[in-house]
Design brief:
GO terms for molecular function: aminoacyl-tRNA ligase activity; ATP binding. The chain is α/β, with parallel strands linked by helices. It contains 17 helices and 20 strands. Helix content is about 40%, strand content about 15%. It is globular, with a radius of gyration of 27 Å. It starts with 6 loop residues before the first strand and ends with a helix.
């Protein structure tokens, strides 16, 4: 039996029910005769330990305590020792307008299309003048470090990317049917492609393979140890399921960090970063002041790389290429020359630096591909495609992180790139999934030992792992449908969601599905 994380009070018999049995979020009723409203209840949360709740509460909660204690006494003992708290609320969900939710409440998809520089129909004027419209491919990027089975926050990001891709295609398809479009624009719509790309961060550390020498942290990457291969099927399954959920019309692919490092512009970007390292290092890594650039030791069966780049050495050759020397505690220094593409693909970066490199690379590719495609159309050459980039990521990477570690750096680093033109990817942020205290749901690497045990003990551990979600028989498309509702009402994309909220969604939708599945059986019995 699941230990309830919320209590709902029935006005008839006074029985405390599991919140999962409630039909909707506004069913909460207060027991008559207490002379108190929900607003009069102390804000202190009821507290339970050793499986039976005990309370230090106002007089009005005595009846609740008695009923809750009775219910709790019937539950099996918990497998772990922890304090358990219950949250009282009115079951109402609010989506207040403000900032992004106000601006994009109706025009979320069309605004992103405009920001991406994709063509928009002009009422009555689309046919004149005729504009060259080369074919376009929109690549929507998502990313993941495959050192855990994806938790519910990662799944939200994945499905949101596919839903945005579907709705962008639908936006143009609807206008193709309804509007009086030019021949060129109609042909462009027919040729418009959208691809979802999962960029697997295989350069993430394999945590069990690191070491500390003389106070310096060294790591081996998932790319070197191949440990991520064990969990990759979970990511592939979610991608396949998400593609099917949106109707099968959105192709997808998986890539690794070598794909980004192989882009033609990356050597120039690395050279610009190295030239500006004295400013860039302290801004991207305030604790160490060093660029967190690394490369695995090339010696067979070694693969160690210094995590924070503290011992790195840099130089610029007369031709302008960058030489970066990396230190291995076992084999000494080894180097990468930015003029050698085969060496550049060995580079690894921490998250802020990786974000900066790929944003520059994608932005440069967009400019160069657009210029080539438009020139081909204008001069009657063989058509080439515009490659336009977008990114969907969690909203924990918004705010100060994006402003100072990405956008500020793009502006300040631009002179070092010799004025390379750039059209950076448009970024869409997925709602953050939070625990009861408002902390983001996180990998075990970043939280205290024993964190989330209360979720596992109450069979809510499926929030932490797609693998556990499958073991419990949870239908992950329930989450897909919930995120789809957010995109249908874009206000809902500009706020976080608690795991308790999503658990309620799973319980309610699961109960509905179970009831629907039982209907044929009931009909057979009646007959």
């Amino acid at each position: 039996m699941n230990l309830p994380t919320e209590m709902v009070f029935d006005s008839l018999g006074g029985k405390v029910e599991n919140a999962a049995q409630v039909e909707d979020f506004e069913t909460l009723k207060w027991r008559p005769g207490t002379g108190a409203s929900m607003a009069q209840i102390s804000l202190e949360m009821p507290h339970a330990s050793t499986n039976v709740p005990t309370f230090v509460q106002p007089e009005i909660l005595k009846g609740i305590v008695s009923a809750a204690a009775t219910d709790q006494a019937s539950l099996p003992p918990l497998g772990v020792s922890f304090d358990h708290y219950y949250v009282l609320h009115d079951g109402k969900v609010h989506n207040p307008l403000g900032a992004g939710s106000y601006i994009y409440k109706k025009e979320y998809i069309s605004s992103h299309i405009r920001y991406l520089g994709l063509p928009l129909p002009a009422t009555g004027a689309d046919k004149i003048p005729h504009r060259p419209l080369p074919p376009s491919t929109l690549i929507i990027h998502i990313g993941a470090q495959p050192n855990n089975s994806p938790h519910i926050g990662t799944i939200v990001v994945f499905i949101l990317a596919f839903l945005i891709a579907r709705d962008m295609k639908k936006y143009y398809a609807d206008r193709h049917r309804k509007a009086d479009l030019s021949t060129e624009f109609a042909a462009w719509i027919d040729n418009f492609e959208v691809l979802v790309r999962l960029d697997v961060v295989d350069t993430a550390p394999h945590n069990e393979e690191g070491c500390v020498r003389d106070g310096i942290n060294y790591q081996r990457s998932q790319r070197f140890t191949k440990a991520y291969h064990r969990l990759l099927p979970h990511y592939e399954e979610i991608m396949e399921s998400a593609a099917a959920f949106v109707g099968g019309g959105i192709p997808y692919k998986l890539t690794n960090q070598e794909t980004v490092a192989s882009m033609p512009s990356v050597p120039r970007i690395i050279e610009a970063i190295v030239r500006d390292r004295e400013r860039l290092g302290p801004e991207l890594a305030p604790e160490t002041g060093a660029l967190a650039m690394r490369s695995a030791c090339p010696h067979e069966r070694c693969g160690l790389a210094e995590k924070h780049g503290i011992k790195n050495k840099y130089s610029i050759t007369s031709s302008g290429s960058a030489i970066i020397e990396f230190y291995c505690p076992n084999h000494g220094y080894h180097s990468v020359d930015s003029s050698n593409p085969k060496e550049v693909v060995r580079l690894e970066f921490n998250t802020p630096l990786r974000n900066l490199v790929r944003t520059f690379a994608f932005g440069i590719q967009t400019v160069e591909s657009r210029e080539a495609a438009h020139n081909a159309v204008a001069h009657g050459g063989a058509p080439t495609r515009e490659l336009i980039h977008m990114r969907v990521t969690g909203s924990d990477y918004a705010g100060l992180y994006a402003e100072q570690l990405l956008w500020r750096q793009l502006i300040l680093l631009k002179p070092e790139t010799s004025g390379l033109a750039i059209q950076p990817p448009v970024i869409a942020y997925a709602p953050l999934i939070q625990d009861w205290a408002g902390s983001k749901l996180s990998k075990s690497l970043y939280v205290d030992k024993g964190a989330y045990e209360y979720l596992r003990a109450t069979r809510m551990g499926y929030m932490l792992s797609f693998g556990e979600m499958k073991r419990q028989g949870k239908d992950h498309t329930i989450l897909f449908r919930e995120v789809e509702r957010w995109l249908d009402d874009p206000r809902k994309l500009f706020r976080p969601y608690s795991i308790d909220y999503l658990h309620r969604i799973f319980e309610q939708e699961g109960a509905k599905e179970e009831a629907i599945n039982k209907m044929p059986e009931q009909k057979e019995v009646v007959q």
